[in-house]
């Protein structure tokens, strides 16, 4: 039996395979949580309907029960254009974290095993792995990519509408059955009246506020780009913000030091801005996604939307996601993409000339007035 770690991949014996999935909480599947298969292309664009738990498709068949989910998968029969399938474990209607499942144990063809500890995972959905084709060979890659706001939110980000409510508790809309909920994140001023943050922080939330030691104000979403996880907020009736400055022209260098400033774990870690340091560890995101860069400055829930600064105090990215079980494998939307988004919104942010170098403490003092905690909720 080959035992895999997150990020590892291995070849499958054939396009037809079977797998089983067990968790550390034998009553969770079917009651609190479930499994979905998402057929996609190599750009993670949807190609056909998701296979939700106990609803089979032409290319797969569910079996098993609550204690052990089983699946027969015919990868050669995927919808036209699909060359991969994401295996996702999620909680119904994002009602809670996957940590209640404690542990996942995936076995493929009784030859491959992947164990994933979820005990400290606060996400509501997690991509366990993907079956994919490369050079006419089907393979499996072990992953641990989380989605804080559940399967439906993950689907919207890739352009796929998914009803993640419990099949026996669905109303006409899964959104209507969602419990009142809230989320926090970080945002930063890009003009005197506009804040930039992550789309997933405010997703499906009816009320948005920004807060800092400067005060608390109501905000409204102006433009939301779910695919690139960007959201522009407008705040009226507040004193003029101090906007950050973006790096102009060139992108980051591999190994370049960066600083993340934000409001992680709001309400637990204190109300002020937190500072972490690291470096640019890769110039691509997962699957060679050129819209993202990878960095090592530690982040936590609530860091989403934090600006990533270079040594000159210029924004080079915006924190968007992490891989929970990996060591500081964090991702940020590149400044170039954020600038293109703001340009499309008719917003002209400041772009800095480089040349001056700040210490981390100087940078934190300079930027603090531009940073805001995002508080989003459904009343």
UniProtKB/TrEMBL annotation:
CDD domains: TerD_like. GO terms for biological process: proteolysis. Keywords: Hydrolase, Protease. Residues 165-186 are annotated as: Disordered. Residues 72-154 form the TerD domain. Pfam families: TerD, Trypsin_2. GO terms for molecular function: serine-type endopeptidase activity. This is Trypsin. The lineage of its organism: Bacteria, Pseudomonadati, Pseudomonadota, Gammaproteobacteria, Pseudomonadales.
């Amino acid at each position: 039996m080959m035992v895999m770690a997150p990020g590892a991949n291995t070849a499958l014996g054939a396009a037809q395979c079977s797998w089983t999935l067990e968790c550390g909480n034998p009553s969770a599947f079917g009651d609190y949580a479930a499994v979905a298969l998402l057929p996609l292309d190599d750009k993670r664009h949807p190609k056909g309907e998701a296979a939700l738990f106990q609803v089979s498709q032409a290319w797969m068949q569910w079996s098993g029960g609550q204690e052990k989910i089983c699946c027969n998968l015919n990868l050669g029969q995927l919808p036209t254009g699909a060359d991969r399938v994401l295996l996702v474990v999620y909680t119904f209607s994002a009602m809670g974290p996957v940590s209640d499942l404690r542990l996942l144990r995936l076995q493929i063809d009784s030859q491959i095993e992947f164990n994933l500890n979820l005990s400290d995972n606060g996400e509501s959905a997690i991509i366990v792995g993907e079956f994919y084709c490369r050079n006419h060979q089907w393979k499996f890659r072990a992953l641990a990519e989380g989605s804080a706001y559940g399967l439906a939110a993950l689907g919207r980000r890739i352009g796929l509408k998914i009803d993640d409510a419990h099949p026996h508790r669905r109303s006409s809309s899964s959104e209507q059955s969602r419990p009142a909920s809230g989320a926090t994140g970080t945002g930063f001023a890009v003009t005197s009246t506009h804040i930039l943050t992550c789309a997933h922080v405010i997703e499906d939330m009816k009320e948005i506020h920004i807060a800092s030691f400067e005060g608390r104000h109501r905000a409204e979403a102006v433009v939301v780009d779910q695919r690139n996880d960007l959201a522009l907020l407008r705040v009226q009736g507040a004193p003029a913000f101090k906007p950050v400055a973006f790096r102009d022209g060139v992108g980051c260098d591999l190994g370049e030091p960066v600083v993340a400033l934000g409001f992680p774990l709001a309400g637990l870690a204190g109300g002020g801005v937190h500072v972490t340091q690291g470096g640019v560890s890769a110039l691509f995101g997962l699957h060679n996604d050129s819209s993202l860069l990878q960095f090592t400055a530690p982040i936590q829930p609530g860091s989403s939307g934090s600006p990533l600064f270079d040594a000159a105090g210029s924004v080079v990215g915006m924190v968007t996601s992490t891989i929970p079980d990996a060591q500081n494998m964090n991702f940020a939307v590149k400044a170039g993409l954020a600038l293109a988004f703001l340009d499309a919104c008719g917003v002209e942010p400041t772009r800095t000339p480089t040349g001056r170098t700040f210490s981390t403490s100087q940078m934190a003092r300079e930027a603090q007035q531009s940073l805001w905690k995002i508080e989003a909720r459904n009343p």
